[in-house]
């Protein structure tokens, strides 16, 4: 213990940290804080998920490495980094990169100008990931490195393409590409980035300065080993004090008795482990942080070992690689790449396997801080690396407090679930990875839902060593779980060897790998089949590697080679095709989002960025833990004695009415007697901090009497559990007569399950509420799409007049429908303690709570009966459709109606009957989501279209064309189609993607590849535009002209990334004939524009644009007489002159959507003002052995009339398409229901980025083309434009049906040519299990259908 005492004497006199060049002293007592919590005084570093899964909190940390004699600059997740872990470092946030007032950094400027920021909440994280890459790169990075650096950042708005394009200018470029890029005629230059004619190459040569044109690169102006690469003269330098400062021992504390140690020598670590046997060693805190925050495990002592030299050894030796347990994964990856390049290939087979596996291990920010030892000692059953350590024959060196070292083989180190061969006083010292031998091969395998930054479903490490026995002529295969000996063969026939090995492997796997039906994680059949698939892939790979060697005769068949080829993703290539139709000074121009420069600098403020007022309290919910139960008792004694506790409130404390709801009041603000879902609010706790409020809420104990719960649509239908008065029927023609008459050559029946989807807006629900005048008024700032609903809910539950409640929204970090109604009840709960205590109250939901309680896209069940001719012409459709509403009605009836309206998609069917019901289930209430039920209805339709194609042996595209609606067609809800551009859109897409040629190429590929298959599909859409409830189709606006010629616009719509404020400002600018820069929109507020409809239904630009134009025209009419009398040189002069003449320069504009309305009693009317038509093509490639897939091409065509802003509209299309891609191919909600018995009943398993995956940058189509129909003005909306927000979403289903097309080709290889159901999302599990072969048959029959929460 003496060494520990000596080191404690050398403790730092003060702990310091530099933030954006400013020195800060870190006081003792903050060990419980993360770096993010410490930085929240700045607005740029965001809280998105709190578990390192979204990248919104990314910052750059720099420290001086004394061994390398240089500074290391890397990105990390501030939400996981303990504050004291960055002591002695320089942390740069987005504010330190550049600002609007000083100068934007080229990274920020490029992102803004490239339209790479929409809602902007994720933007600072992307900026920091790219900035850290540039600062740490001596030479410009490659495009692959850029995309890899962004794998830990999520965006829900843009679809990633503009972000990748923005950062591509920093990639390595070759000027000879321009000088040699002559076009076909030799006269035009071709851009290396787009392949299209351009003049950027010649411009760059002639201008003599950096060009911002396409394909041009930006290079650093300097580089040093201390400061890295600099792209401007204003880069923050590494603080000199930190260069001179010696590392010191840290002994600090935090709340709850938490102790934080930072020893500098190994013996100090061992001494501390003796003193604190249960202490946790941390490096990046990526696992311990999750356990402490999400799993609520308490570790009273944390020992940071990042600066212990003995644990950071990383050296190549004669017999292998020694890796210290504290070595970061990014460091290991770098060294592995180095030794692989330097050493003989037969020595580095295991190194190459680790390189590939680490590449897909989490995101860059995690790899930069996560350690080798941490990953090993966690002993996670889903570890990506531990199977490889075992397969590669790695040895672990373990040291105890006496200095005794023992060595354990990796395969013997893991004793069980999260149990390892490590005594309490022992520490993992290092890992020894031996070089491989000639004829020794090591291979990694991993299959996850998403390719990058995802938890493995199954992973494996496999090793084989070929050893020839001279006497017996035997070839030995040695793998971790199998040993096979194939005897007495000089040359081995491939087919015989394959069968012998596979049969042996199958027998062993069936014995050794036992997965129970209710095993955590589910997917039992898939996981079992993957083990065989991996082994088969390994066998093919080894056979290919050994091709030409002795003892191997024939090569593996060429059709099998694609199964062993590594996936190498090409850079994303985006292209756009549209016309510009200018109207006035701004309308029609591709103007940059008005907030883009604020967003890229982190200066844009969201609700959680609002400065906390003095005396502010924080709220946390007391929630139900049962799906259906009677509340018997509530014990809150422990909560009331919690630290910082200020109050707890229940149903009896509500001043006004406890019943709420957007349509009918069927939802309790606080549960009174019964709870009807997990997560239902029972009470609310307020305390001095967010963490204290959550702790107190967890200390409230509720006693229940459990009641039967309805946990699926199927159970609801069986039990007739429907919300009251929600049955709807639409009819056209006579369905029954058509079926009886014999007109139909064929009649099919079936059902379609449609999965739900989480909104995953990057900004969680958040509200700040305060009273004024002693509670006479209530004000709030909220993240909501519907400030008026917040105003209404809060006034209702407090018993106040609406005129005394004000809700303001500056901008929100994404909504997609999820903040239309559900946000209002969250604000209303927090309003109760604020009003009663007369103190400000803030509530920001943690990501897991947000996902659990705030509702998702509705799952649907469709039961169809369709009659058609032998040619594929549909004559009759009888459809029963059900949606899963959850425990309250919310907007579920309107969503059902919308699905029914769109249940024919674009098809003209003479006889239709659609019956719909809204199911009551014991889940949190589902709510609006982009498309509002339309996509679910259309997906059901496209499923039976695809089945008809199978029945009549035609392509689905032919069936679609035969049944297209056209000008004058009457829909099943009696609306006549006008101004139909569907056929034009379809034909232009067909030409753009060269569909017939694409189909032939896919068929040729499939003919020559057994284990990889490609598929193509074209999908149309027509999306109705308007709120289907007539009264909501109204909009107000307030326009004010000031004497300096600037204009302030306020309207009822909310800016949530869709560019609404930008488009509305463009309309005002063009109306007044002034520059866009002269128009400003500050915020949305209920005291400026009353009674506003939610920003939803894709109609906001139409409605609010028209309302603003109305106000502008009023003001112009007043100004006209003054303008006619004088020749003013500017609008400012005119405005001032009008002021002097006492002309009113303020006007309220108003707009109502004309000629709409639908009567459900008669089933007749005109629910939509017009339709937005579109079509999309996709080509995909699937791995039939694993279910992995990627989208090779996506080509999207939309009719948007004359676009108000083509760049914003293209961004909306790309973002909607990728979000829709997630819905159909990736994002799966898993609830505790009959299909998932391993999840507690009614609970959401996928309640965070760890288990719920949205598309990442790696999922963007390789080639992504967006085109807008030209010469097609829309006479029914402002400036001949069309709505864009929701219509493109469904077009992503072309990816789903392309996947199914590829599966059809795979099934044909096994002789299965019949129709089969495929549910969305088409996850790897569903793809792989549908591709029937010898590796699935032991576990599932041909009709197997993976489970889905519906």
From TrEMBL:
Protein name: xanthine dehydrogenase
Chain positions recorded as substrate binding sites: 820, 932, 1028
Names of required cofactors: Mo-molybdopterin; [2Fe-2S] cluster; FAD
Binding site for Mo-molybdopterin: 785, 816, 930, 1097
Family, as annotated: Belongs to the xanthine dehydrogenase family.
EC number: 1.17.1.4
Signal sequence coordinates: none
BP GO annotations: ferredoxin metabolic process; xanthine metabolic process
Record keywords, A-Z: 2Fe-2S, FAD, Flavoprotein, Iron, Iron-sulfur, Metal-binding, Molybdenum, NAD, Oxidoreductase
Positions with a binding annotation for [2Fe-2S] cluster 2: 119, 122, 155, 157
GO cellular component terms listed in the entry, alphabetical order: chloroplast
Gene3D superfamilies on file: 3.10.20.30, 3.30.465.10, [2Fe-2S]-binding domain, Aldehyde oxidase/xanthine dehydrogenase, a/b hammerhead, Aldehyde oxidase/xanthine dehydrogenase, molybdopterin binding domain, CO dehydrogenase flavoprotein, C-terminal domain, Uridine Diphospho-n-acetylenolpyruvylglucosamine Reductase, domain 2
A matching Pfam family: MoCoBD_1
Catalytic activity: xanthine + NAD(+) + H2O = urate + NADH + H(+); hypoxanthine + NAD(+) + H2O = xanthine + NADH + H(+)
Key word Ligase present: no
Organism for this UniProt entry: Escallonia herrerae
Positions that bind [2Fe-2S] cluster 1: 49, 54, 57, 79
GO molecular function annotation: 2 iron, 2 sulfur cluster binding; electron transfer activity; FAD binding; iron ion binding; xanthine dehydrogenase activity
Domain FAD-binding PCMH-type: 253-438
Superkingdom of this protein's organism: Eukaryota
Active-site residue list: 1286
Note on cofactor: Binds 1 Mo-molybdopterin (Mo-MPT) cofactor per subunit. Binds 2 [2Fe-2S] clusters.
Sites where the protein binds FAD: 281-288, 361, 371-375, 384, 428, 446
SMART domains: Ald_Xan_dh_C, CO_deh_flav_C
């Amino acid at each position: 213990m003496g060494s520990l005492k000596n080191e404690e004497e050398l403790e730092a006199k003060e702990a310091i940290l530099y933030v954006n060049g400013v020195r800060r002293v870190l006081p003792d007592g903050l060990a419980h804080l993360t770096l993010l919590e410490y930085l929240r005084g700045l607005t740029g570093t965001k809280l998105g998920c709190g578990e390192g899964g979204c990248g919104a909190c990314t910052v750059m940390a720099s420290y001086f490495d004394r061994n390398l004699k240089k500074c290391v600059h890397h990105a990390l997740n501030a939400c996981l980094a303990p504050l004291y872990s960055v002591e002695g470092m320089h942390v740069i946030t987005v504010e330190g990169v550049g600002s609007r007032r000083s100068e934007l950094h080229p990274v920020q400027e490029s992102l803004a100008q490239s339209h790479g920021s929409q809602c902007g909440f994720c933007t600072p994280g992307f900026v920091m990931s790219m900035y850290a890459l540039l600062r740490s790169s001596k030479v410009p990075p490659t495009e692959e490195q850029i995309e890899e650096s962004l794998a830990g950042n999520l965006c829900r708005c843009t679809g990633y393409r503009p972000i990748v394009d923005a950062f591509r200018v920093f990639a390595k470029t070759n000027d000879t590409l321009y000088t040699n890029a002559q076009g076909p005629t030799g006269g035009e230059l071709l851009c290396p980035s787009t392949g299209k004619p351009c003049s950027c190459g010649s411009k760059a040569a002639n201008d003599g300065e950096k060009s911002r044109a396409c394909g041009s690169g930006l290079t650093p102006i300097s580089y040093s080993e201390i400061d890295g690469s600099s792209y401007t003269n204003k880069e923050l330098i590494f603080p000199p004090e930190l260069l001179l400062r010696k590392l010191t021992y840290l002994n600090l504390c935090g709340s709850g008795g938490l102790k934080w140690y930072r020893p500098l020598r190994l013996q100090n670590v061992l001494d501390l482990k003796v003193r604190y046997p249960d202490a946790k060693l941390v490096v990046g805190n990526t696992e311990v942080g999750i356990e402490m925050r999400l799993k609520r495990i308490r570790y009273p002592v944390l020992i940071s070992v990042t600066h212990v030299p003995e644990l950071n050894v990383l050296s190549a030796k004669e017999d292998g690689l020694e890796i210290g347990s504290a070595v970061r994964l990014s460091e290991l990856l770098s060294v592995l790449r180095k030794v692989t390049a330097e050493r003989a290939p037969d020595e580095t087979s295991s190194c190459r396997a680790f390189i590939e596996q680490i590449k897909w291990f989490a995101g860059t920010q995690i790899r930069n801080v996560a350690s080798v030892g941490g990953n090993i000692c966690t002993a996670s059953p889903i570890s990506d690396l531990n199977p490889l350590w075992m397969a590669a024959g790695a040895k672990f060196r373990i040291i105890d407090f006496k200095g005794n070292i023992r060595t354990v083989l990796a395969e013997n180190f893991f004793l069980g679930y999260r149990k390892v061969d490590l005594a309490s006083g022992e520490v993992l010292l290092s890992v020894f990875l031996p070089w491989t031998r000639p004829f020794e091969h090591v291979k990694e395998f991993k299959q996850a839902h998403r390719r990058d930054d995802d938890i493995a479903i199954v992973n494996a490490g496999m090793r084989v060593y070929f050893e020839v026995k001279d006497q017996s002529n035997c070839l030995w295969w040695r793998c971790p779980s199998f040993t096979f000996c194939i005897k007495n063969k000089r040359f081995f026939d491939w087919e015989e060897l394959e069968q012998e090995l596979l049969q042996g492997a199958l027998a062993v796997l069936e014995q050794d790998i036992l997965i129970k039906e209710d095993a955590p994680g589910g997917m039992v059949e898939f996981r079992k089949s993957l083990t065989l698939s991996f082994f088969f892939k390994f066998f093919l790979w080894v056979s290919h590697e050994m091709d030409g060697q002795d003892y191997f005769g024939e090569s593996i068949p060429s059709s099998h080679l694609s199964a062993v080829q590594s996936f190498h993703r090409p850079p994303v290539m985006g292209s756009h095709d549209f016309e510009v139709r200018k109207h006035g000074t701004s309308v029609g121009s591709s103007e940059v989002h008005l907030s883009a420069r604020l967003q890229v600098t982190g200066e844009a403020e969201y609700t959680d960025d609002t400065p906390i007022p003095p005396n502010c309290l924080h709220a946390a919910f007391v929630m139900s833990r049962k799906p259906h139960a009677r509340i018997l008792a509530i014990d809150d004694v422990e909560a009331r004695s919690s630290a910082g506790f200020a109050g707890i409130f229940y149903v009896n404390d509500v001043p006004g009415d406890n019943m709420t709801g957007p349509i009918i009041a069927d939802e309790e603000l606080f549960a009174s007697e019964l709870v009807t879902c997990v997560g239902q609010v029972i009470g609310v706790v307020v305390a001095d901090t967010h963490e204290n409020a959550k702790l107190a809420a967890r200390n409230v104990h509720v006693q229940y009497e459990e009641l039967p719960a309805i946990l699926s649509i199927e159970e609801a239908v069986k039990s007739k559990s429907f919300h009251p008065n929600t049955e709807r029927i639409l009819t056209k023609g006579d369905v029954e007569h058509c079926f009886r008459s014999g007109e139909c050559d064929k009649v099919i029946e079936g059902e379609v399950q449609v999965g739900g989807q989480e909104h995953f807006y990057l900004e969680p629900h958040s509200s700040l509420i305060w009273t004024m005048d002693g509670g006479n008024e209530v004000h709030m700032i909220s993240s909501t799409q519907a400030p008026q609903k917040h105003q209404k809910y809060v006034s209702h539950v407090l018993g106040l007049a609406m005129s005394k409640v004000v809700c303001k929204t500056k901008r929100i970090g994404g909504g997609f429908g999820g903040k239309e109604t559900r946000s209002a009840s969250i604000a209303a709960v927090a309003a109760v303690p604020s009003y009663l205590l007369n103190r400000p109250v803030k509530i920001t939901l943690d990501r897991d709570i947000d996902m659990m309680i705030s509702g998702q896209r509705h799952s649907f069940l469709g039961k169809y009966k369709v009659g058609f001719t032998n040619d594929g012409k549909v004559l009759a459709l009888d459809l029963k459709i059900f949606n899963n509403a959850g425990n309250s009605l919310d907007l579920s009836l309107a969503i059902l109606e919308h699905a029914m309206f769109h249940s024919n998609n674009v098809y003209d069917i003479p006889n239709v009957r659609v019956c719909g019901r809204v199911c009551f289930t014991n889940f949190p209430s589902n709510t609006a989501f982009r498309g509002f039920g339309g996509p679910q209805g259309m997906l059901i339709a496209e499923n039976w279209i695809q089945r008809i194609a199978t029945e009549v042996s035609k392509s689905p595209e032919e069936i679609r064309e035969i049944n297209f609606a056209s000008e004058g067609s009457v829909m099943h809800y009696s609306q006549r189609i006008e101004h139909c551009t569907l056929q034009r859109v379809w034909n232009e897409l067909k030409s753009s993607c060269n569909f017939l040629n694409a189909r032939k190429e896919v068929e040729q590929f499939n003919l020559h590849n057994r284990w990889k298959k490609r598929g193509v599909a074209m999908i149309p859409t027509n999306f109705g535009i308007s709120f289907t409830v007539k009264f909501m189709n109204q909009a107000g606006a307030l326009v004010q002209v000031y004497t300096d010629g600037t204009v302030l616009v306020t309207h009822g719509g909310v800016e949530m990334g869709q560019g609404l404020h930008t488009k509305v400002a463009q309309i005002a600018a063009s109306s007044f004939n002034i520059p866009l820069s002269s128009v400003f929109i500050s915020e949305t507020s209920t005291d400026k524009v009353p009674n506003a409809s939610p920003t939803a239904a894709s109609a906001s630009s139409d409605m609010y644009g028209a309302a603003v134009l109305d106000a502008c025209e009023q003001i112009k009419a007043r100004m006209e007489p003054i303008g006619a009398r004088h020749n003013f040189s500017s609008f400012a002069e005119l405005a001032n002159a009008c002021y002097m003449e006492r002309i009113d320069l303020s006007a309220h504009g108003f707009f109502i959507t004309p000629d709409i309305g639908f009567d459900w009693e008669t089933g007749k009317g005109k629910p939509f003002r017009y339709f937005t038509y579109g079509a999309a093509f996709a080509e995909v490639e699937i791995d039939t052995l694993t279910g992995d897939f990627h989208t090779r091409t996506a080509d999207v065509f939309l009719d948007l009339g004359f676009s108000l802003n083509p760049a914003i509209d293209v961004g909306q299309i790309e973002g909607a398409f990728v979000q829709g891609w997630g819905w159909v191919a990736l994002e799966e909600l898993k609830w505790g229901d009959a299909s998932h018995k391993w999840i507690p009943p009614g609970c959401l398993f996928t309640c965070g980025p760890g288990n719920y995956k949205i598309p990442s940058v790696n999922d963007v189509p390789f080639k992504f083309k967006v085109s807008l129909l030209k010469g097609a003005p829309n006479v029914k909306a402002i400036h001949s434009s069309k709505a864009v927000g929701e219509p493109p979403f469904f077009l992503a289903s072309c990816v789903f049906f392309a996947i199914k097309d590829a599966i059809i080709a795979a099934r044909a290889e096994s002789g299965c040519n019949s129709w089969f159901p495929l549910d969305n999302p088409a996850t790897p599990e569903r793809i792989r299990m549908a591709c029937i072969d010898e590796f699935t048959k032991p576990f599932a029959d041909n009709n197997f259908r993976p489970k889905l929460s519906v």
